[in-house]
Design a protein that fits this description.
This protein has 259 residues and is an alpha/beta fold. It has a single domain, classed as Vaccinia Virus protein VP39 (Rossmann fold, 3-Layer(aba) Sandwich). It is 23% helix and 30% strand. Strands 1-14-13-2-3-7-6-12 form an 8-stranded mixed sheet. α4 packs across α5.
Length: 259
């Protein structure tokens, strides 16, 4: 297959050309629950999930950014159903991360504003690559760590706090024009995720020259950031209009990067 290319076709067609155990990471956000207008296209979730398992290398990671819509007074729980199906076909649910929006669109009705989406990390075995993003430790030195045992007893263990530590699995991003990306053309797509989100996940789960695949390329964020980070990439996008948006973003990659 040709690398560093967006294939304007159904992702099942693209993946059918890939051998088993081919890609090092998948980063994508599916067109979930018809929350946005995706030109009338639908996707065969279960078939796509099985193909993603086949093409991922052993010990590789799939990041699935997804949410649910509210319908007839109830959230659909589609995200949970998908997560359980991924487990059924052999994936580990390695981590349930949160994509938290600092400035979401206000919502109406008798609910709090919807601030987050799930970022499920599914792994094909135990991940080989993990480059944790670090944050500064507020206090360093020797500390007593308190743990409660199975019988309810409290145990104390001395640990050394270093200057930095792994950050938590809730990722906070501000979104909107000039924030998610500087590429104005990207906002012709109805649902983009922040470039920083793509950077954080690609940094964590891959190394340089690894191959990243996005089966719903959309506005091209995964491709743009993978290319900036010296990773190879492949994308699938069924809509000709969205494919053009993504390709135009890649043409102006050098001048419009947040990094």
């Amino acid at each position: 297959m040709e690398l560093n290319k967006i294939y304007n076709e159904d992702c099942l067609q693209t993946m059918s050309k890939m051998p088993n155990d081919f890609v090092d990471m998948v980063l994508t956000s599916p067109p979930y629950d018809d929350l946005r207008d995706y030109k009338g296209y639908v996707f065969a979730f279960e078939d796509i999930a099985k193909e993603l398992f086949r093409i991922l290398k052993p010990n590789a990671v799939l990041i699935w950014v997804v949410g649910d819509k509210t319908e007839n007074g109830s959230e659909t729980a589609t995200s949970f159903k998908q997560a359980l199906f991924f487990k059924e076909i052999g994936f580990n649910l390695h981590d349930t991360m949160i994509y938290y929006k600092n400035n979401p669109m206000p919502t109406t009705g008798k609910r709090y504003h919807q601030h987050f989406e799930y970022m499920f990390a599914f792994s094909k075995g135990t991940p080989n690559t993990f480059n944790p993003i670090k944050e500064q430790t507020k206090y360093k030195g020797i500390a007593n760590m308190k743990n409660r045992g199975k019988e309810g007893t409290l145990n104390y263990e001395k640990i050394e706090r270093t200057e930095d530590k792994k950050m938590g699995n809730v990722f906070f991003y501000s979104i909107g024009g000039g924030i998610s990306t500087k590429d104005k053309i990207a906002f012709q797509h109805p649902a983009i995720f922040p470039e920083q989100l793509a950077y954080d996940q690609i940094y964590t789960w891959t190394n340089e020259q690894d191959l990243v695949y996005d089966c719903f390329m959309g506005s091209g964020t995964t491709a743009k950031i993978a290319q900036k980070m010296n990773r190879n990439w492949i994308g699938s996008e069924i809509s000709p209009e969205y494919t053009q948006i993504a390709e135009n973003r890649l043409l102006t990659l050098a001048e419009n990067s947040l990094f």
